[in-house]
């Protein structure tokens, strides 16, 4: 579940440009407004600092800008599993292909088409790594304020409430799991592990945050989705 939100929210954030609201339905508007509460400039400043100072983050950026990662992203987006996930999102008028193409634009890879059939900081010494980057970035995200806004939208928008109930009930996972078990995704996971990224630790940290944010009482014991 964490990965589903990160993928969609990250796709919006990487452009750093407000999304036009013309013809948006209420669910999309609510999601966009919650995402816009993330202090993008602060998070980017932290990421740039790590990119300069930290060797593990440099290795990650090198991999993300390489051809193999781009090929895996393209393979994932072309897979039937992604098509199924996009179909589920379409039920709520969320265009998964448009969001994916925001990532493709940043990666400078061809756009994917729908399946026609269906604050100033002290420099850090290298070694803090990606986990420290994630934690420092999250410290600058006003989760309490976003949570209050999220609760208000749940109470005021039945469509948004219905969407989140289905996502948090695990229904979205039925569409997401086949994608996470696909060959290109597993290859990407293996590549990141070979770079030394502590994927389990990152997964557990983000799961704790999402558990608290969504007031979930039980943390999933399923294998990490990262």
Summarize the structure.
The chain has 226 residues and is mostly helical.
SSE order: HHHHHHHHHHHHH
**In terms of per-residue confidence, which ranges show pLDDT below 50 for 5 or more consecutive residues?**
1-24, 217-226
Q: Return the structural class.
A: mainly alpha
Rg, Å, rounded: 18 Å
What is the makeup of the main sheet?
none
CA distance, first residue to last residue: 10 Å
Q: Beta-sheet strand percentage?
A: under 5%
Q: What's the total number of strands?
A: 0
Give the mean pLDDT.
Answer: 78
What does the model show?
The protein has about 230 residues and is mostly helical. The protein is about 70% helix and about 0% strand. α1 packs across α7. It starts with a helix and ends in a 13-residue tail after the last helix.
